[in-house]
Specification:
Blueprint (H helix, E strand, L loop, with lengths): L12 H10 L3 E5 L3 H9 L4 E4 L3 H4 L11 H12 L6 E5 L9 H15 L3 E3 L7 H9 L4 E6 L5 H4 L9 H17 L3 E5 L3 H10 L4 E4 L7 E4 L1 H4 L17 H17 L11
Parallel strand pairs: 1-2, 1-8, 2-3, 3-4, 4-5, 5-6, 6-7, 7-8
Length: 272
């Protein structure tokens, strides 16, 4: 059954709640630079996440932990300059909010003031509630993130599916309800069983955004480099590649190199 969609000239945190209420799924993708964000926004993606995954796909780090607040602000500023429609959410990086609510607020304020972003995202539930409260009390919209939280990868020791056991699943549900009570406008659920995603999504009035969490989330998010096939060594079950840019770009660059070497580029029509 088709759902009539409301047209949004500018997506806001309120828009996402309306989408959930209307049964319209929410699309979310990452972007880290002006050129990519311009393309993503023009394709009518609802939410652009300036993710700390920039640490992996842009800087080549093994985890998201090394990226700094200054670097996140740089990426977010580049994205904001390109975007006309999407809601832009920025990850507060590891070490910038977990231990001290005052530091969390300072970090969130810097992101909002220096990049022009629309909201921030943090990982965790009960453990970071004081930081979430402090940020929200300042009027800054917050998106939560539960399940597999990459900033805690060394605690988990693996990128495997989370909350398969009853105790962890129960905590995740309680954390999701807590984040909603605190005032978060949405929650990312990463790499958890689809049945648990369904349970959480039905209990919350705010939308859930899934990644590796099944069809029952109110929206979906992927890393743009994975979706476009620019990364080729990362092959989780949940990833659907819509292009194979790794090979296509390699062919194009290889052809350019060959044309330069053979002196066929530039030709007479390509010079002054």
């Amino acid at each position: 059954m088709s759902v009539s969609k409301k047209e949004y000239k500018r997506v806001t945190v309120r828009s996402l709640v309306e989408m959930k209420q209307q049964g319209e799924k929410i699309s979310m993708l990452t972007a880290y630079d002006y050129s990519m964000a311009k393309i993503v926004d023009a394709a009518n993606v609802d939410v652009i996440l300036v993710g700390d995954s920039a640490s992996n796909v842009m800087a080549g780090h093994e985890t998201t932990l090394p990226i700094t607040l200054d670097q996140m602000i740089y990426h977010a500023s580049s994205v904001i300059r390109a975007v006309k429609r999407a809601l832009v959410v920025v990850d507060i990086p590891f070490g910038s909010y977990q231990s001290d609510p005052k530091e969390a607020l300072r970090s969130a304020i810097r992101i909002m003031k220096e990049s022009g972003a629309h909201a921030v995202k943090v990982e965790g539930g009960e453990e970071i509630k004081d930081s979430v409260k402090r940020i929200l009390n300042a009027g800054i919209p917050v998106m939560g993130h539960l399940g597999l939280t990459p900033q805690s990868i060394y605690k988990f020791g693996t990128y495997t599916v989370r909350a398969k056991e009853e105790a962890e699943a129960r905590k995740l549900v309680e954390d999701a309800k807590l984040l909603e009570r605190l005032g978060c406008f949405a929650v990312v659920l990463e790499k958890i069983p689809a049945a648990l995603t369904k349970k959480v999504s039905e209990k919350l009035t705010i939308p859930t955004i899934g990644i590796g969490a099944g069809v029952h989330a109110d929206g979906q998010v992927l890393v743009i480099h994975d979706l476009l096939g620019m990364t080729h060594e990362f092959n989780p079950r949940f990833l659907r590649r819509y292009m194979n840019l790794y090979d296509e770009m390699g062919k194009a660059i290889g052809q350019y190199v060959g044309d330069v070497k053979s002196r066929s580029f530039p030709n007479p029509e390509e010079q002054y």
